[in-house]
């Protein structure tokens, strides 16, 4: 056989081996996962643009439960299933949110900006070194950039420091002020009443606002009265005087989670139980026109 033929066959063989090696590398990355200690995929591999679209007029609130033995991969999958424009997370550690954001991008093609409203440095909840514990509180993820960020702690947090984060971002193609909060734990009605007064006063400065969060109170709780003056819940059957079946948002069948709307019309909402948390996912589509 001519020497040129042997050389051609050798070249084809080497090309095939390189291709096989490349394929095996990709397979190993998928099976083994990222090599970085934090579990985040390296920045060089992140897509620049979202692979799939969010629902531009959808907002979501979710207490992700902490401490809970829940994978951030599972949390990201829950969010990706509904692909909201804006998500308010409560009981969120910064490290967890960073991983959730990375998984949303790398596993689901959804790209979000993040702002944190941390109020605690807590080793028990968020890990880290005892002298450098992880940050804990609220986070807002938005497909659009966020501006005018305010991170506030309530004057009285009750048994645990609590606060809110507020941002201006885009929902349904319109600029809107978004608040995300987590009020004091149950059986602290007077503390929550003070927190609601602070939050309502801030939101009242805006003609159009969305208030997301875990309010730790049922709709007819007296401490929520300022909220009902200010805004309406996305669930039309939930209010200070229930007019129908108000859907619970927790595993213990209480309505604690809200999407309050000021100057905005709800188009439809869903409450979805999930094994990833003791709070259900609550999302709603809105009309800002």
Any overview of this molecule?
With 289 residues, the protein is of the alpha+beta class. It has six helices and 14 strands. The strands form three sheets. It has a six-stranded mixed beta sheet with strand order 3-6-2-1-14-13. α2 crosses α3 (94-108). The chain is globular, with a radius of gyration of 23 Å.
Descriptors for this entry?
33% strand; alpha+beta; single chain; six-stranded mixed beta sheet; 289 residues
Instruction: Tally the helices.
Output: 6
> Could you tell me the mean pLDDT?
86
Separation, N- and C-terminal Cα atoms: 77 Å
**Given the helix and strand composition, which structural class is it?**
alpha+beta
| Overall strand count | 14
Helices and strands, in N-to-C order?
Answer: HEHEHEHEEEEEEHEHEEEE
Question: Cα-atom Rg, whole angstroms?
Answer: 23 Å
Helix content: 25-40%
Topology of helices and strands:
Elements: H1 3-32, E1 55-63, H2 72-82, E2 84-93, H3 94-108, E3 113-121, H4 123-126, E4 128-129, E5 132-133, E6 135-142, E7 147-153, E8 163-171, E9 174-182, H5 189-203, E10 209-214, H6 225-230, E11 232-233, E12 257-262, E13 265-272, E14 281-287
Parallel strand pairs: 1-2, 9-10
Antiparallel strand pairs: 1-14, 2-6, 3-6, 4-5, 7-8, 8-9, 10-12, 11-12, 13-14
Helix pairs in contact: 2-3
């Amino acid at each position: 056989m001519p020497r040129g033929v042997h050389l051609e066959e050798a070249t084809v063989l080497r090309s095939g081996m390189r291709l096989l090696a490349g394929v095996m590398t990709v397979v190993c990355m998928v099976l083994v996962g990222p090599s970085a200690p934090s579990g985040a995929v390296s920045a060089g591999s992140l897509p620049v643009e979202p692979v799939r679209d969010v629902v531009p007029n959808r907002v979501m609130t979710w207490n992700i439960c902490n401490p809970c033995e829940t994978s951030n991969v599972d949390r990201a999958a829950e969010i990706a299933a509904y692909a909201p424009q804006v998500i308010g997370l409560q009981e969120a550690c910064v490290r967890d949110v960073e991983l959730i954001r990375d998984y949303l991008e790398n596993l689901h093609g959804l790209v979000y900006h993040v702002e944190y409203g941390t109020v605690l440095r807590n080793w028990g909840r968020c890990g880290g070194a005892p002298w450098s514990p992880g940050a804990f509180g609220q986070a807002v993820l938005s497909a659009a950039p966020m501006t005018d960020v305010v991170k506030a702690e309530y004057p009285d947090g009750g048994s645990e420091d609590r606060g809110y984060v507020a941002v201006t971002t885009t929902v349904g193609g319109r600029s809107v002020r978004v608040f995300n909060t987590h009020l004091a734990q149950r059986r602290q009605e007077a503390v929550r009443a003070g927190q609601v007064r602070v939050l309502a006063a801030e939101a009242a400065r805006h003609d159009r606002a969305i208030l997301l969060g875990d309010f730790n109170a049922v709709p007819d709780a007296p401490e929520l009265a300022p909220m009902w003056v200010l805004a309406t819940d996305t669930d039309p059957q939930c209010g200070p005087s229930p007019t129908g079946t108000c859907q619970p948002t927790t595993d213990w069948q209480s309505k604690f989670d809200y999407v309050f709307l000021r100057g905005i019309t709800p188009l439809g909402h869903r409450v979805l139980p999930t094994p990833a948390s003791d709070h259900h996912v609550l999302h709603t589509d809105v009309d800002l026109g």
